[in-house]
Amino acid sequence: MAKYRFKYWYECGERGCFLWADDDVTRDTFGGGVSHVDSKKLPLSAELLQFLRDTARLHDRSLNWEYPPDPPDPEDWTPEMAAEFDRRAHEGYDRICAELGSDYEIIYAADITG
Length: 114
Fold this sequence. Notes:
alpha+beta, four-stranded mixed sheet, 3 helices, 39% helix, globular
């Protein structure tokens, strides 16, 4: 059984958070959300962290920052960008699972296409 359990997803404007504690043990050890900023607590490579940071920047384009309830400007978030984000998010998940190993359970929380 995994020692720590996280949910994996991106949320606009959350300092690039990509892992969210899913139980008390994980929350007590890492806090609620883990971003590329405070991910030094986890055994993740610098290359993967850069990939996740770039994916978070892409995801942030899916929000209409002027008025969030409205859809994003079609020039800022195209169907191709949504598909690229989904591809990168799944790749990030696979890479996180591979790098963290069996002490961590990572739950892919949602396919987020904006």
